[in-house]
Amino acid sequence: MTGELSEAVAAAQGGDEEAFRFLYRSLQPGLLRYLTALVGGDAEDVASETWLQISRDLPSFTGGEFRAWTVTIARNRAMDHLRRQRRRPALPVPVQALSELAGDADTAERAGETIGTESALALIASLPPREAEAVLLRAVIGLDAETAGRVLGRRAGAVRTAAHRGLRRLAGLLERADADQPADRAGGATPPRARTGPGRQASQAPKAEPADG
């Protein structure tokens, strides 16, 4: 946790409302992205529940990684919500762009430079659950592997492996999407027909044309 964040936590515990607003502004965007991937369109409601609990329990926070503490609360609230809404599947919805999807591997940097708001959440949601959460905690929330492991109840090495695999899958999906786009544009074009003489272009059709695809 940065020194500025630590100072804000201490001040907020002492009742400083401006410090609490600073914590909210600093952490809410990442929490909302994380919750959107978990519960879809109900992310705002779950985030509100999360901040209510954070404000209530903040005096009892005794130190450590504050971001991990907040994301643990958010994850618990999300799991409670999903248990209540088990019969209704969650769908990803547009949120703020994942502007800094970064990690240890070059694939993460490429993903962060390429994917946008809706496509990012859709791609992350398509990953296996363990990989999706690892990517979210490491690349979106910004937790290290040890801290993310404590949130998820898994070993740090397992979190690193899951995040790496997830980012590689994302890079592969992006590469396939990029490869498909030129083909789609080309497939929609109609090649010009050669004119061999006056009045002949209407009566003489090409013998064969390649099928689309």
Descriptive report:
The protein is an all-alpha fold and 213 residues long. It has 2 domains: 2-85, Orthogonal Bundle (Rna Polymerase Sigma Factor, Chain: A); 94-191, Orthogonal Bundle (Arc Repressor Mutant, subunit A). The protein has 9 helices and no strands. Helix 1 crosses helix 2 (17-39) and helix 3 (43-57) packs across helix 4. The longest helix is centred in the C-terminal third of the chain and has 32 residues, at 156-187. The chain is globular and about 55 Å long. Residues 89-117, 183-192 and 194-213 have low confidence and may be disordered.
The CATH class label of the largest domain is Mainly Alpha
Summarize the helix and strand pattern as letters. HHHHHHHHH
Beta-strand content bin: under 5%
Choose one word for the global shape. globular
Helical fraction equals 55-70%
Q: State the separation between the terminal residues, measured CA to CA.
A: 52 Å
CATH superfamily of the largest domain: Winged helix-like DNA-binding domain superfamily/Winged helix DNA-binding domain
Strand segment count: 0
CATH 2nd-level architecture of the largest domain: Orthogonal Bundle
The whole-number mean of residue pLDDT values reads 75
Helical region count?
9
CATH topology title of the largest domain: Arc Repressor Mutant, subunit A
Radius of gyration: 24 Å
Largest sheet: none
Structural class: mainly alpha
**Poorly predicted segments:** 89-117, 183-192, 194-213
Count of spatially separate domains: 2
Primary descriptors:
disordered C terminus, mainly alpha, 66% helix, 9 helices, Arc Repressor Mutant, subunit A, Rna Polymerase Sigma Factor, Chain: A, 213 residues, 0% strand, 2 domains
